[in-house]
Amino acid sequence: MTKNRVTLILLIALVASSCSLSKVNKEYRGAIVGNWILNDVTYTGNSGNFKSVLFNDVSDACFEGSQWFFRNSNSTGSYTINPGAECMEGTRNIRWSVYEKGEGASQLQFKFIDEKRNDVSGGYGYRLDIVTLNQQEMTLQTNTTVEGEPITVVYHFTRSL
């Protein structure tokens, strides 16, 4: 009986350790949790003025000043678009995580969910490279193309109290 008990404990420990997050992932998650303000969206790598629809939702101008919340306990959160002339205001619910790309690079990934935490995007989501992340600021970016030319969309956040 004792041998079976020891085997069971070792099996449980093995399963628990294989499901745990890496140290880097835990650090990023801990730093992301909380309230953030998306101060501005900028573009690098190409010249000109850009206006874009972000996350298949609203224009980049509507995201400036938006409130973001990341909950750790169940990996859910939301962002709220403020009222504006061309902005569809309101709160969008998300499920988020940190994805480790390898070679020390990590990304914030999220997808849209409803109030009952069900996926509403057919499994489709977004990944943003984590450029800067500390207790006061977060900078994320994603690479895309405009008329065949590469461009980087940069998101500048500050911690909200």
Automatic annotation (TrEMBL):
It comes from the Bacteria. The keyword Coiled coil does not apply. Residues 1-22 form the signal peptide. The keyword Magnesium does not apply. Keywords: Signal. The lineage of its organism: Bacteria, Pseudomonadati, Bacteroidota, Flavobacteriia, Flavobacteriales. Residues 32-140 form the Lipocalin-like domain. This is Lipocalin-like domain-containing protein. InterPro entries: Lipocalin-like. It comes from Sinomicrobium pectinilyticum. PROSITE patterns: PROKAR_LIPOPROTEIN.
